[in-house]
Amino acid sequence: MTTNTLKTAARSFFTLRPVRDKTITTKSAIIGATAIALTQLGDATTTIIGLEFGAAEANEAMASVISAAGYPGFIGIKVLSIAFLAWYSWKRKYAPYIIAGLYTAVVLWNTYVISVHL
To answer: Could you list the residue range(s) of the whole structural domain that residue 74 is in?
Structure first.
């Protein structure tokens, strides 16, 4: 990737008004949304497993949700996150893969934390 491509990707990702790329097929958009959903579900699963093994939630906002509403509230937030992130990244060239990549890193970190607490 060139520097110009990276700048374009960053500029298009960090916007409150997502611009849809008409050249992206619905199939590709569904693949991106599915990647987001799978990584969100992976984060939720590894977070709950980690908490059950004695780890602490590092995200203070999510820790508050879990404290106040338990796992059902946490799962509810994750479902809303999937819906919002899928909408936000729908038919955008880089967004779904950046989001999925970030959450893949979170899942890997959670997996590491679980291994430490076993």
So the answer is: 37-118
